[in-house]
Amino acid sequence: MIKGMTGFGTAPFSVGKVKGIIEVKSVNHRFLDMAVYLPVGFGSVENKVREMVSKELSRGRVTVSVKITDKPGNNVSFNEDMIEEYLRHARSIEKKYKLVNNLTLADLIGMPGVVDAREVFVEAAVLWPSVEKGLVKCIKGLRVMREREGKSLAMDVGDKLKRMSGQLKIISKRSAEILKDKQRALKPEEFSSFQKSIDINEEIARFTHYIEEMRALLKSDVPVGKKLDFIAQEMQRETNTMGSKLMDEVVSRAVIALKSKIEKVREQGNNVE
Fold first, then answer.
1. What angle do CA 193, 233, 246 make, to 5 degrees?
2. Range among 72-81, 107-116, 230-239 with highest mean pLDDT value
3. Three-state SS at 44
């Protein structure tokens, strides 16, 4: 069954005190266009993420986001040598200028170089196995959504194809009626020429073949969006030819109806992977 291109998947991951969340979403796009957003220091795993996604998806604008939600706090240390240096200078100034030394702990902590607070960085190599498992779950969830959308699209396109077959029957029947009327009114040699000029048997046959091709594609498990679009273009060409050969009010209405259905199929083809 065909698949759509709209989907979303999310999964948490954790290693020790580090926790995070992965989100993968996709929308319609003619090709596979991927954007990957990773935490600082995770650049080394970006290619792995892209490879995992591209193996499962062939079309769509895909966004992959990996966020760290919880991790250990900053590492804080005190430079005791620097503290001793500040205190030594303070005592020297106190003695030399006969000042009162009222330095407090808060004063010392606020002095440059006394407190060293370093952010704890999470190593990508440590987290990757957990992130990888989460990403697999995300992609699976996204594919489930795309499969559900595909079923809906297949039903809609199938209905359009059924209606196209109905319009083809109207055109074919009207063509036969026109020939029958002209056969009575024209001389044999004139009728023969007229018959050739409005012969649409080939167009009807090709259009019918395209309908069956589309029906087969709707049951396919491989990406078929581009093929659907190509076949719809060929249907449009055959429809234009039939309209130009048979200048008749009934045929014109059927041709307009066909073109409308073809355009809607093309629009839905843009939603198919």
1. 25
2. 230-239
3. helix
Query: d(Cα 40, Cα 202) in Å, to the nearest integer?
Result: 62
From the centroid of its chain, how far is CA 131? 21
Helix 46-56 crosses helix 124-185 at what angle (to 10 degrees)?
A: 30
Among positive and negative, which fits the CA dihedral 135, 136, 140, 143?
positive
pLDDT (tens digit, 9 = 90+) per residue, 177-195?
A: 999 888 888 888 888 898 8
Contact 131, 22 (CB under 8 A): yes
Cα separation, 170 vs 51, in Å, equals 50
pTM (2 d.p.): 0.75
Query: What amino acid occupies position 72?
Result: P
Cα distances (angstroms) measured from residue 9 to each of 26, 60, 96, 129: 9, 14, 71, 18
3-class secondary structure, 41: coil
Alpha carbons 53 and 67: distance in angstroms, whole number: 17
Q: Which residue has the tokens 């065909």?
A: 2
Domains and CATH numbers, the chain: 7-72+123-145 (3.30.230), 75-118 (no CATH), 147-269 (1.20.120)
